[in-house]
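Hi P.,

Sorry for the delay on this. The queue was packed all week, but I finally got your sequence through. Input first:
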Amino acid sequence: MKSPVTTCPVAIRIQEDDFDIAREIAVLTERRTDIGAVVSFSGICRADEDSSNIASLTLEHYPGMAEEEIKRHVDEATSRWPLNGVTVIHRVGRFIPGQNIVLVLTASQHRRAAFEAAEFLMDYLKTSAPFWKKEESATGSGWVEAQARDDEAAARWTKS
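Then the structure:
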């Protein structure tokens, strides 16, 4: 009998092109018999933020630094939870409401680790990854400020 795979493959991509969630899950789980749960989080451009009708959202990043920062948090997630695979895809460019922006997939033998790791990664992507957002609406455009609620969400993962 073949022994189960015990490595944790990691894929981190920053791209302009859209992604296919089902395809990404299939790639992550292909020929893997050690995965019992895959949790996916997909972030989508929304049309309404604080009663402002958003026409588009532009995301910019610091190439190289963004990937490294994401990898640092993925490494922390794989050290905290028994993960069997992680995929993080973050898109950059101009988006209209309804378009995909970010995908986080975490795979583990059991669901709890996969859920917690995905939530941890999203909290840190919102607060630490070097991405900048510019919203455009009928009333003008402007760069999005950091939100205290995002910092509070990330703070709960801080080890004491």
